[in-house]
Write a structure and sequence with these properties.
The structure holds two protein chains of two kinds. Chain A has one domain: Orthogonal Bundle (Ammonium transporter fold), CATH 1.10.3430.10. Helix content of chain A is 67%, strand content 1%. Chain B has one domain: Alpha-Beta Plaits (2-Layer Sandwich). Helices cover 19% and strands 33% of the residues of chain B. In chain B, a hairpin with a 2-residue loop joins β3 and β4. Classes of the chains: A mainly alpha, B alpha+beta.
Chain lengths: 445, 114
């Protein structure tokens, strides 16, 4: 096994740098039907997470806004999928362009160049492209949580289209493309197995910036704005949990040991997160709430997202538990600071992602660290050094997402307007922007 | 004492509630109801023009002492009317005499309990 890695790895790298992808990743590769079957399943599982997210968020808002909130997730499914096929995949997984700011491969526009190509992993390129496309969909949908109940639908749609092109695609390229600069930082790259930085930190930060830019909801924080349907919320949390197996375990792009390790870490962290939140809330506020349980599940899953491939179960327990503590504190802090991150996009995804991406440095399995050490000049690689790399990746993501998002927010606001008018906000997103009602006759508020 | 029952458009409930609170009428009961009156405006639903069936509305029940009836009605009308001219479907207000009012907590009766 080691000899094959020593021979094939540098050869593959050489081929990647010298030869256009479409020439060698071609019909000659055999399909590994097991890996392909799993990757097809993962793609569907990650897609399921978006309606799951829609349910999670939809149940948390007032009933007059439920459809509008769910439409934020569903609209992303439409807009981001189309953009991904047109140019998103090319921008993320093409070769470095514009100094490495993003990738580019004209051959990948409209996915034309991969119509019959199979990756070295034995999975058709289409499957990989579609799998990655699901991540591009869910990331902007997460942002919607921070600006719930007060954003114009048209402005939101334009915002996520621009955000996907200018923030997500570059970040994805830096972290996951083989020539991305974060992929190559340090001994073995910045560790982001399934999107801690690319998905959660970026969307969390953008959510925070957007929530502050748009201002609070009318009446916040004095007026109570209760969830209209917690049943739907926790079902959504359950769908997200199951879908996350596709998100994390699928990110192994194989059906292998790495997949099994990622799956185990994912389940363990989710459960640890949920349990910790339940205990925290029970001790701190007397009752363990269903919403708290769901939030704990998410905190654990977000934290293990960057780490799923490199931590062992005990590490996943630690990640889940500590992420829960950090996110719980972050929400308390939000209440004290007074900004309206309505559905805790930053509190859970931002803080959870940062916690996971940084903390994993001390929880990496020994074999990974040993392998990384072989890439360094002096043959050693410590947890602290990896922490430095992680911190750099996290810091770059935070600054980039925040700055570019602010510019996009400003531009879209001036173009079509982002914040709903007062009367629109009072009447509710559903009737204002969609002319529909979500629920029949269930709840008053 | 009077019981004021107002049927208003769904979209206007927040406006009406805030107008009432501003007029210092703070004790209200809100429920979802459906009904129709003259309102026959057609709308497009799934590509066809349809005339509405029972239409969802909001109902407010407010118990007030006689002195406050005018303030309450004025506040509701101002907030619930669509624009200056109003629209078919803005709703109605019914005022019925209220025989007795009891506060459960203190068992007070009469105008004091409202």
């Amino acid at each position: 096994m080691n000899r094959r890695i020593i021979i094939t790895f540098p050869v593959t790298v050489l081929l990647l740098t010298l030869v256009p992808r479409t020439l060698f990743a071609a019909e000659n590769n055999h399909i590994d039907s097991g890996a392909t079957a799993w990757m097809l399943t993962s793609t569907a599982l990650v897609l399921l997470m978006i309606p799951g997210l829609a349910m999670f968020y939809g149940g948390l808002v007032r009933s007059k806004n439920v459809l509008g909130t769910m439409m934020h997730s569903f609209a992303a499914m439409g807009i981001m999928s189309v953009l991904w096929v047109i140019c998103g995949y090319a921008m993320c997984f093409g070769k470095n362009a514009l100094g490495g700011w993003c990738g580019w491969d004209a051959n990948l526009l409209f996915l034309q160049g991969i119509d019959d190509s199979i990756m070295d992993a034995g999975v058709p390129d289409y499957v990989f492209a579609m799998f990655q496309g699901k991540f591009a969909i869910i990331t902007p949908a997460l942002i919607a949580g921070a600006i719930a109940e007060r954003v114009k639908f048209k402005g939101y749609c334009i915002f996520i289209a621009l955000w996907g092109l200018l923030v997500y695609n570059p970040l994805c390229h830096w972290v996951w493309a083989s020539d991305g600069f974060l992929f190559n930082l340090g001994a073995s790259g910045a560790i982001d197995f399934a999107g801690g930085t690319v998905v959660h930190i970026s969307s969390g930060l953008t959510g925070l910036i957007a929530a502050i830019y748009l201002g609070s909801r009318r009446g916040y924080p004095k007026t109570a704005m209760r969830p209209s349907n917690l049943v739907m919320t926790i079902i959504g949390a359950g769908l997200l949990w199951v879908g996350w197996f596709g998100f994390n375990a699928g990110s192994s792009i194989s059906s292998s040991l790495a997949t099994a390790q990622a799956l185990t870490a994912t389940q363990t962290a989710a459960a640890a997160g949920a349990l910790t939140w339940m205990l925290l809330e029970g001790l701190h506020q007397g009752k363990a709430t269903a919403l708290g349980f769901g939030s704990g599940v998410l905190a654990g899953l977000v934290a293990v997202t960057p780490a799923a491939g490199v931590v062992q179960p005990w590490g996943a327990l630690v990640l889940g538990a500590i992420a829960s503590v950090m996110c719980y504190q972050a929400i308390l802090l939000k209440n004290r600071l007074g900004y309206d991150d309505s559905l805790d996009a930053f509190g859970v995804h931002g803080i959870g992602g940062i916690t996971g991406a940084l903390l994993l440095s001390f929880l990496i399995r020994k074999s990974w660290m040993a392998e990384a050490a072989t890439h360094t000049t002096n043959g050693t690689w410590t947890a602290l050094q990896q922490f430095g790399i992680q911190a750099a990746a996290v810091g770059i993501t935070i600054v980039y997402a925040a700055v570019v998002s602010l510019v996009i927010l400003f531009v879209v606001d001036k173009l079509v307007g982002l914040r709903a008018e007062t009367t629109e906000e009072m009447a509710g997103l559903d009737s204002t922007f969609h002319g529909e009602r979500g629920y029949g006759m269930l709840t008053v508020s | 004492m009077k019981l004021i029952t107002a049927i208003i458009q769904e979209d206007q409930i927040d406006q009406v509630r805030e107008a009432l609170i501003e007029a210092e009428i703070t004790r209200i009961t809100v429920s979802r109801v459906s009904g129709h009156g003259q309102q026959t405006t057609e709308s497009i639903y799934r590509g066809r023009r349809v005339a509405p069936n029972l239409i969802p509305k909001m109902r407010l029940d407010i118990a007030v002492n006689d002195d406050f009836v005018k303030i309450t009605c004025d506040a509701i009308i101002k907030a619930a009317k669509s624009g200056k001219v109003g629209q078919v479907g803005d709703g109605k207000i019914f005022i019925t005499p209220l025989e007795e009012c009891i506060r459960i907590r203190t068992e007070e009766r009469g105008g004091v309990a409202i």
